[in-house]
User: Fold this.
Amino acid sequence: MTDTTARLDTRGMNCPLPILKTRQAINRLRSGEVLEVTSTDPGSTKDMVAFCEQTGHELLLSREATDGYVFLIRK
Assistant:
């Protein structure tokens, strides 16, 4: 399992807030560090893929959880 450097809880937030908060959180990390994001926004699954493709970050994990969605992103 990948070590998580930071966690971001965006549950209850709707688009575009999960992506905006993710961008802010990942900007605080150093290269190679991993951000875990939790979200309840169903659109976040597509949004996180697009965000990583556009920014060059690596989406390590995207899965549905009992209380929403979990993403692991390596900067």
DSSP finds two helices and four strands in the chain. The first strand starts at residue 6 and ends at 9. Residues 6-74 form a domain with the Translation Initiation Factor IF3 fold (CATH 3.30.110.40). The beta strands are 6-9, 34-39, 58-65, 68-74.
